[in-house]
Amino acid sequence: MNVLNGYFSKFVNVLLKIFLIPLCFVVVINSIVDIITTGNSFQYSILVLAIYILSAVFFYFLYKKGISHKKLLILILLYAVILRVIWIILVPSYPVSDFLGMYERSLLVLNGDTSMFKGTAYYARFPHMTLTVLYFTLLRFLFGEPLIPIKIFNLVFSLISVYMFYLIVKNLFKSEKKALMASFIAAIFPAFISYTSVNCSENIAMPFFLLSIYFFIQVANKSKPLYYLIFSGICLSIGNLFRMVAIIMIIAYVIYLLIYFQKNLINKGKGIALILISFAIPLLLVSSTLKALHITEYNLWKGSESKWTSILKGSNMNYGGGWNEEDANIPSKYNHEYNEVEKVCKQIVFDRLTKTPLPKVIDFYIEKYNTEWKSGDFAGTYWSKVSLEEDSFAYKLSTDFYTVANFLYFLLLLAICIGLFNKKQYLKNYAVNLIYLTLLGYIALYLIIETQTRYPFISSWIFILLPFTMNFKRKY
């Protein structure tokens, strides 16, 4: 370990302690407040927790009995399928909000209408949703009414993610037992289960993000040659087509290669080039092809509305950084003139941050951070139940499942915080710092842009990997 990466690792570690240790208390307080305000009966919460505990005991028993790891993994994957199928059946969610918009527009696209991708139409202003609309269109073409097929494919993507946790943890921590534990946690992770019935793009992007991490860690641990970074970049780019927040991981990759990669400067440069080029090519190809086919008017990464409109909403202290009509009307007020809108947004954001008393600004961002990260389901149960009748079984099950999600989330956070004191991990297992950097990046991103509690879902995989930094007394 050289001096630079040692000091940098300690700096990252301190930042995460500042963010995550208080979050543990916030999660507990949020859970208590939720129980009091909703009058949760715990009827289904207790049932689900009992099922989780019994299944954990069952799999541990099989492990101790010496069942092969391959068979145990297959059983965990089968268990993951069963949980998700049960959820899809018991919680018949219907898309709402942006999810409904993408779902309905896919029918228009199938009929040849692509006007929503042009001019100042919604998906021209926010083209990052384009691929999801086209994906729904493809499923409509193949299956007619695509709601059930979408949920089935969500299940498949989720199952792939469960398997990826096994592979990543096995490579990251060199432990078969930890890998099996990670796959089990992923199988029962409430956010993964609840979002199976939601038509969101994160379901598609998640396994590709994990594949990218897997390939990168293999290179970082020197188990694969440098050119494997090409696969990492391609997978990340594919995931980014559906959920365009991969820039955070790109930045984390570049920082890791510069600081931790045990190669000379030339090879560091090659690694960075491989990641950037392999990430950029699929994005450029897809974007230019869609424009050439006259499906879209703008590049997928830059629509007719500046990204500063999201930052503008995210800085509005009167609305907690969330969507509000005041900021949403700025583009139309300035006739959707891109440069003018961006200029106005920057000025308003600057004024808000400089003309507001500093204590109020700090309080705002603390509250914004807590809002984004305090829920263990990452709003999955909300989006699952919002289309349902409040007195229905499915609605009550979703409400109770939220309590389970927070309980499990707290345990994972607690393990992560304990792991932050394990110097063996963050000072010697360099690849762990890649995950730490990624988490810090997403924390920063969601402090800046518009507040939505579902946004951090795409980064929720981090909370399954990092608990294994905790120092286990026994060696495996």
Please render the helix and strand layout as text:
Elements: H1 3-38, H2 43-64, H3 69-90, H4 97-110, H5 122-125, H6 130-143, H7 147-173, H8 176-188, H9 190-194, H10 202-220, H11 229-242, H12 247-259, H13 265-292, H14 308-314, H15 325-328, H16 330-333, H17 338-355, H18 358-373, H19 380-385, H20 393-419, H21 423-428, H22 430-448, H23 462-465
Helix pairs in contact: 1-20, 1-22, 2-20, 3-7, 3-8, 4-6, 7-8, 7-10, 10-11, 11-13, 12-13, 12-22, 14-17
Mean pLDDT: 93
Low-confidence stretches: none
Roughly how much helix do the residues carry, as a percent range?
A: over 70%
Structural class: mainly alpha
Number of domains: 1
- Please tell me what the overall shape is: globular
Secondary structure: number of strands? 0
Written as H for each helix and E for each strand, in order along the chain, the element string is: HHHHHHHHHHHHHHHHHHHHHHH
Largest beta-sheet details: none
Q: How far apart lie the N and C ends?
A: 25 Å
Helices, by number, come to: 23
What is the beta-strand fraction?
under 5%
Radius of gyration: 22 Å
GO molecular function, one term: pentosyltransferase activity
Membrane topology: Multi-pass membrane protein
Transmembrane segments: 12-36, 42-63, 72-94, 122-143, 155-173, 179-197, 204-220, 226-259, 271-290, 401-421, 430-449, 455-472
Keywords: Cell membrane, Glycosyltransferase, Membrane, Transferase, Transmembrane, Transmembrane helix
